[in-house]
Write a structure and sequence with these properties.
The chain is of the alpha+beta class. The chain has two domains: 146 residues, STM4215-like (2-Layer Sandwich); 110 residues, no CATH class. Helix content is 15%, strand content 32%. The protein is built from six helices and 19 strands. Strands 7-6-10-2-3-9-8 form a seven-stranded antiparallel sheet, with no helix packed on it. A six-stranded mixed sheet has the order 12-15-16-19-18-17. A two-stranded antiparallel ribbon has the order 1-11. The chain is globular, with a radius of gyration of 23 Å. The model has no long low-confidence stretch (mean pLDDT 87).
Amino acid sequence: MSPAFTYNNFNFSGVTSIGEHLLMSQIENNIKSFLDWGLLNIGGFINVLRPQNNIFGNPIYKLKPTEDPNFTTGQVWQTMRKDWVWEQDIVFVDKYNPLLQSTPTLITGIYVNNVFYPLNTVGQYSYKVDYINSRIIFNSPISTSAEVGMEYSYRWVQVYTYDNARWWQQLQYKTDQNINHFNQLAEGDFSILSNNRVQLPAIIVETISRGMSEPYQLGDKSLIVKQELLLHIVAETMHDRNMMIDILRLQQDKFIKLYDTNVVLKNGVYPFNIDGSLNNNRLQYDELINDEDYYWKTARLIDIFASDVQSFSPFLSESNVKLTVEIIFGVDN
């Protein structure tokens, strides 16, 4: 009689901790980073200079005081447009005019009543820059009648993961034109905190619960994993919507490197601190995917197609772009 077969491996495969970022989370984080980086490098940013009124005649270099129950009135100030650019060494060269180059205007300080206060200012006007929520927070409140301004760049397209979009709470349009609302302190669209507002155009990345896997090779547990995503496009014009659709579907069959979110968190090289300020040890997307310490997998973008969405508003143009991310999981690649 042959000996009884025993099998004592009772542990899960491919996961070591309940708090670990696994396949769907890794893909969602990486696709957002890929879109943010790619859009910046084709000129998807708007520079705001002082005292230039460069958008519809509105002084969008100005900041307004905003009521936040966690702070005293006069501490929190925000701009008309959110999602400030922090990445360095971005240079956009216009294909049709190579002499025309532009680079994002990074935040180096603020102006209070026409006096410049650089980063790390101490004293009455000491402050921090909250990039996560796109606001300036003074250590102590200042007069709400003060004139506060700043030179910066914002992303023309805001990219969100689905959990962070909160687009069912407040979808805000004409954000560079609605100066009357911006100037109101306790009412209007801009009285709502920036973390509860999604400005347009926007792409919301949703990892849907649909995918498949199949064996990759004999002798191990490796898999070819295909995970579907929906990219929700919301824009104010049909032109903007169509342009984003075209940009996305031109990525068909593109191979991209993915970084390991778990290692990024472990080594503390994420972009922002918990208070929204820039992390001094941060690494940019291009640095993460080209560093062997943070490289995770190579993925292929396949099966990209767009479909119309019946908008709930006559002022919006919407679409869904579905794509599949294909990864060989369980082997080094």
